[in-house]
Amino acid sequence: MNIAIVGAGNGGTNILKSLSRVDEVNVDIIVDTNLNAPGISLAKELGINYSKSVDDINASNLDVIIEATGIEAVANEVYEKFSSDCKIIDSTGAFLIMTLVERDIETLEKLNKQMDIINETSTVVQDQIKEISDSVERIHDVTNNLISTTETSNKYIDKSDKIINYVNKIAQQTKILGRNANIEAARAGKYGKGFSVVANEIQKLAGSSENFAKEINNILVKLSNELRKINSEIDNLKQLSEIQLGASEKVEFVVDKLKKQTDM
Q1: What does UniProt give as GO cellular component (predicted)?
Q2: Do 153 and 228 touch, CB atoms closer than 8 A?
């Protein structure tokens, strides 16, 4: 459909702006006595013919002329010259078109602003998702390091336990030696008094060693229990980080889908 627009003010400009987006419509020319009117400037940008005189309208190639000035003299001139060649939409019809077009433009502008906000929000969300994903990966690394550390600690506890058992055996054997030494000292009578003192000190040392070994063993048992708790918390942390990572991947997928739709 070929169309001419008479009047390049705000109304004619909005009509031109709207119709230029429709593939089935070709705006052949826009006319206004003011070549600095906004509609003329838009026509120049779009590569559409423009003129300051209605005489330059070739009605034989047109289907419709839209008279958008609302000036009676201009409307009468257009009717007189072109009503026999094509259909003419007068200022009343043009006003209706302009009203619909303005609302259409307002709606499009609102949609464009909303799309801009969605795009900005999508960018921010994607950046945050990336930070979350990076933090989750770091949490995985920390978790793995903690697991490695607790495993190493458990190995040292096992080795320490073996050493404590060995110390206990030595302490028990030393106690037996001390008792035997006391028995022999008693048999020796007054000649065994000095040896008896040494035997008693050996027994005291053996008792102290045994007590220290028990205390160390109690500490190691407590440490082992704490490490089990740490392992349990690490498992929980690992599960939470996996849930967090899965959620961030789902959000990222939805945001990408939304962004692709807004780009269409």
Answers
A1: membrane
A2: no
- pLDDT, one tens digit per residue, over 126-138 is 676 677 667 667 7
Distance, in Å, from the CA atom of 210 to the CA atom of 205, rounded to the nearest integer, reads: 9
Predicted model pTM: 0.42
- Mean pLDDT over each residue of the chain, to the nearest integer: 76
Per the document, the length of the chain is: 264
For 41, the domain range is 2-89
Q: What are the residues whose beta carbons fall under 8 Å from the beta carbon of 14, sequence distance 6 or more?
A: 98, 101, 102, 105
DSSP code of 34? -
Rounded to 10 degrees, the C-alpha dihedral 90/94/96/102 comes to: -170
* Edge-to-edge strand list for the sheet holding 2-6: 49-51, 26-31, 2-6, 64-67, 87-89
C-alpha span between 119 and 223 (Å, rounded): 53
In a domain, 34, yes or no: yes
How many angstroms separate the CA atoms of 88 and 83, rounded? 6
Amino acid 43: pLDDT: 94
CA-based angle 219:220:226, to the nearest 5? 90
Tell whether the model's pLDDT for residue 71 goes beyond 80.
Answer: yes
Pairing label, strands 64-67, 49-51: unpaired
Query: Residue for token digits 């230029």?
Result: 20
Answer whether residue 97 is part of any domain.
Answer: no
Q: Give residue for tokens 């031109």.
A: 16
- For residue 159, being part of any structural domain is answered with yes
Tokens of 47: 């590569």
**Token reading at 120:** 């900005």
